[in-house]
Amino acid sequence: MSKPIILTGIKPTGSLHLGNLVGAVKPAVTLSQNRENQSFYFLADYHALITVKNGQQLNRYTMEMAASWIALGLDPEQVILYRQSDVPEIFELAWILGCFTPKGLLNRAHAYKAQRQYNERRGEKTLDAGVNVGLFTYPLLMAADILIMQTRWVPVGRDQGQHIEITRHIAQAFNHAYNDEIFVLPEALTQDNGVVIPGLDGRKMSKSYGNTIPVFATHDELRALIFRIETDSTKPGEPKNPDSSVLFQIFRAVATKEETDSFRRQFVKGIGWQDAKEQLFDLLDRYLTDPRQRYQEIIHDPRTLDRILAQGATKARDQAQMVMKVVGRLTKNQ
Ligand code: TRP
Question: Is the Cβ–Cβ distance between 280 and 242 less than 8 Å?
Answer without folding.
Answer: no
